[in-house]
């Protein structure tokens, strides 16, 4: 008899638990979704928990453009710039997830695009879609740009404005100027050429994706000779994920090469941006260094991809085999 009562009691507990779980699932399914929920979905990393410090905005009256987080600093800059440019193109409001803001605000001041956290309280009746570019001006929905969104056809025509979106923090600017001053061997007449060498991950990526090998030292040395002929007072500033390779293969062969070591990504980018011209191989980080620097840019011919598209859109960018 006691066993029967205990069994009934257990069954009641199990049934109550199942009802509670079902209630929670139904409640979550039918409760109003917000942009705060959406932001959690879009972030690949932890969103900063500082909502008490975030200035809430009125809910947007127009559709918005946003994007899903992925990648590192160079990719985050493309995501940010692409959201801004597409919003301009389509008459929508730009918003980016707080996780993207968190990465960028470590390097840049006064970021203009608001975070989704600022409208986290606003209801979302339908999550953003990713229609084809041709439908952007026809659709009235929010637009979600795809992962690794890199839209040079929208960004490059507005590049002067885009560059103004990325204002380096004061200490990064000051340190980049101090670094260049140390190597101003001809004082105010020195021409600085930023050189970005990407190796580590691309040693495996290039053969698989592009059927190419990483560039050899001759690629960089040949373009360096071009700049030496054009400018009698030139200094090459090398930033790389493999600085030891650069010291052995570039600095050891030229007296006017300085290799940046033990620097964070934001500082590396500020140094590249402070140069007059650029030599890059591949990857978004080097591209942003070149875009922010202006001047002439020489880049490696990987046959297809973002680098090649950029060389077609930027009149002062030149592909080298």
TrEMBL record:
Location relative to the cell: Golgi apparatus, Golgi stack membrane
Pfam name, any one: Glyco_transf_11
One GO biological process term: carbohydrate metabolic process
Main localization, broad class: Golgi
Record pathway: Protein modification; protein glycosylation
A Gene Ontology cellular-component term: Golgi cisterna membrane
Recorded topology in the membrane: Single-pass type II membrane protein
GO molecular function, one term: galactoside 2-alpha-L-fucosyltransferase activity
Keyword vocabulary terms for this entry: Glycoprotein, Glycosyltransferase, Golgi apparatus, Signal-anchor, Transferase, Transmembrane
InterPro entries hit by this protein: Glyco_trans_11
Superkingdom per UniProt: Eukaryota
Listed EC numbers: 2.4.1.-
Family recorded in the similarity comment: Belongs to the glycosyltransferase 11 family.
Name this polypeptide is given: L-Fucosyltransferase
